[in-house]
User: Which sequence fits this backbone?
DNA sequence: GCACGCGGCGAGAGCGCTCTCGCCGCCGGG
DNA sequence: CCCGGCGGCGAGAGCGCTCTCGCCGCGTGC
């Protein structure tokens, strides 16, 4: 216990094994060129001394850190209100640890934080970055790109019409929306409304686009903007009912808004799904299961999304330190499939 | 763009300012002993070159990393099912960044992960650790303590009867439970039941103790064990109703179980709060607000808990690198107050 | 006016590692 | 049997920083 024993160095291991530092280094890093009996002796010495390489010293020369930053913009809002974020982190974490990388978490809320993050990234503490930036006016992506670090974005970035080489992974928001609306039509519903999410986020825009794909020229009175909160869903539902009392289905941009809509419908005495069928998006547990009735919704693989982001980034990191814009191999954007989960609300 | 410009070193700044490395170092690290005009010249050189210290090189000599590990055990279960975790992280993050420390997130699920974490901590990559370990048989705390790193635990650790010097911060689970039950009694309820959380977690045990404090020798038939999930709450509520159909109130160990209980009560045709009053714990949003009726519950300051944990740890780190068991100043355990939030369920 | 003290600054060592280079011993071919 | 080649290993430099130490120049006291 006393004074924390000074950690053994490469030198110490070398001395104990009766070899040079270089040889120990070779063994520890698994490079070949060391004959078996010697290697074995080194390994024993490592065990006996409980040697663990000093990462700082190693980074100093290799310029690798085996660490990536995960940057989450605006934890204030939706991101932190639901388990979304935690699931994604979990996926990322799994993938990173499987490749012996550390996860450095950076939560940002205001401009000041952005400067800090930019400085941190420029400081070269990490090898790459995974970024979640939701809003359209967020300066963060720009800062990050200019830091020149390999980066993968979560969700389709705003400035990316589609294929300009910005690495990202997204959920098939548009396809999922289409599926949700088609399901409602398949139920025989004809006057399907949509409550959008906050339209400064691409996920909301894409879901709205999916709705329009299927409804082809819907009555504008059947679309109402929300902001992904339950309260906004409730308010939007009321507005919708006021404008189109005859509506018989609603597709909400997420489960939280669907829950709000459910409440508004109940207040107005509409039965779900008999009078109005409701479909959500996300399959956010436990919300989706706890509503009355349980929510039919579009499930996305959050954890898988996290894993994939990490995997993409690690791949870039492996292929040489310089991921020049040009020679990116593989698709720059990946879209994950979704599945419709049928419960009782539609 | 081309090849990422080789980052400027101390040497470069020194050359530009026409001083020695030592002087630049002094200025950069804010130590005094450099006269103003010179210091100013150095600062200009730093700006012009966009110099950012190389953390690896610095750590190599200082043995500080300005980084703290946050270790979350078993993200599988409850931790990840609710926004609890994210809130706590947010508090931690705020406090850490305010002190220029990085947050390294370690998520663990199985034994193998534990070994990895132990190795990581022993590897001296971080200056301290913040640990969330829920379950009684978790080997993690032991591993961490033996790594000899300054550590603060989230929640009361199992092996700690109270005051044996293990740094931790906890919510006033017992006090909150008492308050909840007293509230029910104040409403005139007399046959108050309790649905416990998973009793291998101290929070569940403490809440049960609080219940007992007030109910003084309650009918054992009025206590049913759950596991913090909504499903368990529903099941427990049914069992309780079967045994004591005359019960007129229930205190659930958390909001999720309260939501489950609400559902069971509704199924059995009991009105809430008229027939049976319900109180939860956590004030987990958006659950607590979305139930029917909205839940009266005990709110804890999750984010504050995170902040406090970080603050405690940073304090330990500042007072010399060796936080010998003995000379810990200040209380080893801190308990955060809770408040009862009255909504409609009780 | 001279010695002494003190504060500002520079020189240099060294943190623990990686990696290049060159040496040495072993093999095969002429 | 000698020489060239090659693979295994050690020596040493150097990554970018901090920090101790000592030098130098100035101000002060007698």
Assistant:
């Amino acid at each position: 216990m006393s004074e924390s024993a000074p950690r053994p160095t490469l030198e110490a291991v070398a001395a104990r094994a009766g070899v040079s530092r270089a040889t120990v280094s070779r063994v520890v890093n698994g490079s070949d060129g060391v004959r078996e009996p010697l290697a074995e002796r080194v390994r024993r010495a490592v065990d006996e001394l409980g040697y663990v390489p000093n990462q700082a010293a190693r980074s100093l020369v290799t310029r690798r850190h085996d660490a990536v930053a995960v940057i989450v913009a605006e934890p204030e809002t939706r991101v932190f209100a639901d388990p979304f974020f935690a699931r994604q982190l979990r996926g990322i974490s799994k993938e990173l640890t499987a490749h012996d990388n550390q996860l450095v978490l950076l939560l940002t809320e205001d401009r000041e934080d952005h400067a800090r993050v930019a400085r941190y990234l420029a400081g070269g503490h990490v090898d790459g970055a995974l970024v979640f930036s939701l809003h359209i006016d967020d300066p963060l992506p720009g800062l990050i790109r200019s830091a020149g670090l390999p980066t993968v974005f979560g969700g389709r970035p705003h400035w990316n019409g589609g294929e300009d080489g910005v690495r990202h992974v997204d959920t098939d928001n548009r396809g999922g929306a289409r599926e949700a609306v088609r399901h409602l039509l398949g139920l025989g519903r004809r006057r399907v409304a949509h409550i959008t999410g906050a339209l400064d986020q691409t996920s909301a825009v894409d879901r709205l686009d999916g709705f329009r794909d299927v409804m082809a020229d819907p009555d504008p009175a059947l679309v109402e903007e929300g902001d992904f909160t339950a309260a906004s869903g409730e308010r939007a539902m009321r507005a919708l009912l006021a404008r189109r009392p005859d509506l018989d289905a609603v597709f909400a941009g997420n489960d939280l808004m669907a829950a709000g809509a459910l409440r508004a419908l109940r207040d107005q005495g509409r039965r779900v799904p008999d009078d109005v069928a409701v479909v959500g998006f996300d399959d956010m547990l436990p919300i989706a299961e706890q509503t009355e009735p349980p929510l039919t919704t579009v499930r996305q693989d959050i954890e898988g999304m996290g894993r994939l982001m990490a995997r993409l980034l690690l791949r870039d990191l492996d292929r040489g330190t310089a991921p020049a814009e040009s020679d990116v191999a593989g698709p720059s954007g990946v879209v994950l499939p979704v599945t419709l989960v049928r419960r009782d609300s539609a």
Observations:
- Residues 321-327 of chain A have pLDDT under 50 and may be disordered.
- Residues 302-318 of chain A form the longest helix (17 residues).
- The domain at 10-53 of chain A is CATH 1.10.260.40 (434 Repressor (Amino-terminal Domain)).
- Chain A touches chain B through 57 residues (CB under 8 Å).
